[in-house]
């Protein structure tokens, strides 16, 4: 009998470990399948905002810190990284990546860590629902509370809504934040469980508040949850107006949370900047919400009916929910959510449970937002799993037979959902196709044009900044009003202006390299193309975009220097900007040659010749450097790597 307490304590730990392993195993298996199907012959690159996040991780990993000012992601401006660029857990990834054993390359280390970290959400959800089922005044027996927590954890672990975008293929800030948010909820639930013991309750509330603040620092989307929590607290404060003890507990907890969140805003430059410039930072989302309500959540085919911000945001992953997407992503989750809600509303004990009303309200709110914005799927995954876990626990509390049946149904349903998710791995991948072309293009930039500012659409800018060794003019994300205005002016010059107008736009942003992504005139998904965004569905015949894609032979100011079936790299010729870039390269080559740095001289001269093949000064420098190397003349930079590191910040 002496081992019975130890065995009882070990059961929750084993269940928490089981749901973590289920979540982690599904995500790693999916990632391996994605690599095998999407990029079997070479490493899978990060793309879009994930490339930007990986760039920062690699900076922290190689340099030990992140730049205060970064000119690599919004050339020629210097971005104050901590205030204007989304920073999450880059330093943590770099720290733990250094300490992982084995010879895995950095991208694989980061992806392993990302999948492991987000998988901690499953045991956090298990603890949260277990705590809810243990709330007074009528806590369910432990034998029912644990199966309820297990049901919640397993449903989240394998649900397609939660698995998509969390396999490690992408580095998403919400994946950094949600484990902290769910442990915050678990601490809150267990603090309320011990509400009769003030010191213990306050300790749990403080831990919960700190975790919430940390989640907010890693993803500013946690603000939405904070607003919902504040609104729910206001409703409870009104409801408890004649119940002083419960009102005191509520106000005390709310005060602790408010202090923690205020500290996060005060000490986090990104949050501080965005809170005090709210309209510029988040006003475009409010504009999109209005457009969705105005047009009944159906994107109009006529671009004139939408503003530029509305057009460019109404794309994946902010597109609207459809019946096809619901059937694809939630064929198990959605019916279970309806069944759980029906059971809780029909059962007297379910209606009386203190967690039923807030979980039903949270599910209703987040599902409504999910209908408007598909990216809210992860919120639905969290709170639907919690509601199903609560219903499973109350159902299991009826009798031992019910507990066994609930546990068996949980294992059967979660196993079926896991098998369905694993059977179609590419469906949950965030981006498909053109990886070989992307690698070829960024490799060309890194070897031939490293350091040259590049104009490219913001969809590929992140990969160029991460792998191409070049600063980019268009920020890969809409972080500021200025960034959004710059994208609009770029697209307007490309589709409504002629070659000279586009060249003038590039010169105004001190850039001489343009990367054109083919497909701008495809008849498929026209509403997601840049010509739709600037209301130029049928651009003029002399539009710059038509020349880059359809009539390269008519170009006079641009020269093609690299092409694949997806990407074309052009050099701007003539003009003050192009001449300045060429002269700078030639001067750097001559300076390196005079200092005896032969490798650097040859590399810089070659880049100058890419920009201007007829540049005699660069040709002479290259010839001298190569001749000296062939004669065995010792170079002052024998250990110098002519290829710039892709993580090196430009500027």
Tell me about this structure.
The protein has helices at 4-38, 48-63, 81-84, 90-99, 106-119, 121-133, 142-158, 160-163, 173-193, 198-218, 222-239, 244-267, 269-275, 278-294, 308-313, 323-329, 333-346, 348-352, 356-372, 377-396, 400-423, 435-448, 458-467, 481-496, 499-508, 530-533, 544-549, 575-594, 598-611, 616-630, and strands spanning 69-70, 79-80, 454-456, 513-517, 558-563, 567-572. Helix 2 (48-63) packs across helix 4, helix 6 (121-133) runs parallel beside helix 9 (173-193) and helix 7 (142-158) packs antiparallel against helix 20 (377-396). The chain is built from 30 helices and 6 strands. A hairpin with a 3-residue loop joins strand 5 (558-563) and strand 6 (567-572). The strands form 2 sheets. The protein has a 4-stranded mixed beta sheet with strand order 3-4-6-5. Strands 1-2 form a two-stranded antiparallel sheet. By secondary structure, it is mainly α. Helices cover 65% and strands 4% of the residues. Mean pLDDT is 84; it is low at 639-651.
